[in-house]
Design brief:
With 173 residues, the protein is mostly helical. The protein has one domain. Helices cover 76% and strands 7% of the residues. A hairpin with a 5-residue loop joins strand 2 and strand 3. The model has no long low-confidence stretch (mean pLDDT 84).
């Protein structure tokens, strides 16, 4: 009887140890500085070069527009006293229209730069995410966090703790 009890106890202990080890393995958490990883990926110097050229081309266009505005403004101030009312109004409208085009160009250029950067960096982001996913699976990580922003980069399921946190806070909805 005592032998059987020891065998059963040994089996229970082994199952408990195996379950604990398995539970610890599945809750393994890792972290990485995602931004630093992206900076160090091969090809980033090419992206920076393309972006610099793109910025320079936009700045060149903006500079041309601003030079034109300065010329028109200087011409207007120089000759305003001798201009007829209709010519003065026409010149003022030209200057105002050019200012509007410059502002629109600046806003459009900013959006264009953002789009260009996204277009160029997306393949690197996807490649990095896939590498993180592969490393997580190979290393048995359940979660990988971005060390800088505490953003979850990889998750192998996990339990939604929203109901528990809502209960703790007294939220019944």
């Amino acid at each position: 009887m005592m032998k059987n009890l020891l065998k059963v106890l040994a089996i229970v202990v082994l199952i408990a140890v195996a379950a604990t080890a398995n539970a610890q393995k599945s809750s393994k958490i890792g972290h990485i500085e995602f931004g630093k990883l992206l900076e160090q990926m091969p090809g980033q110097d090419t992206v920076k070069g393309v972006m610099e050229k793109y910025v320079q081309s936009l700045q060149g266009e903006l500079q041309t527009m601003q030079s034109e505005l300065e010329m028109k403004g200087a011409d207007y101030q120089k000759n305003a006293a001798t201009m007829s009312t209709i010519i003065k109004a026409t010149k003022e409208k030209e200057i105002t229209d050019l200012q509007g085009r410059i502002e629109a160009f600046q806003q459009s250029a900013q959006q264009d730069l953002t789009n260009k950067q996204t277009e160029l960096i997306t393949p690197f982001v996807e490649k990095a995410k896939q590498a993180i996913k592969d490393v997580a699976k190979e290393g048995g990580f359940a979660y990988i966090l971005n060390a800088v922003d505490d953003i979850l980069l990889y998750s192998d399921g996990g339990e939604d703790v929203m109901p528990l946190v809502k209960k703790k806070l007294g939220i019944t909805q």
